[in-house]
Amino acid sequence: GGTGSPSKPRSMFDDIPLPQELHLNEKDSQVYEHEFGRVGLMKISGNLSRDSVLNYYRAAMAENGWSKESEFDNSASQMLIFSKAPRSAAITVTEGWMSTDVEINVSAKIQ
Asked: Are the C-beta atoms of residues 39 and 16 closer than 8 Å to each other?
């Protein structure tokens, strides 16, 4: 227990961190408790380049026990797919004019 008042939540998933530069968009996020852990959609955004976000999550997810399954790239956005049984996580990064938008979609892994 800390002594300070709780700040805004850094992340809705205890094993998926947020880069310092990005902030949680609680209004558009929907996360549910499941018997095997939290699932749902977490949206974050901020002033960080797409490549920086991708590099952050390649490292941070591995540190949190996720293994990378694949990457998809198109001109508008790039997606990283990670798995950590029994869940999978799809991280979609889209670079806009003023900020970079990130969607983290965690679901039950399809066997």
From this structure: no
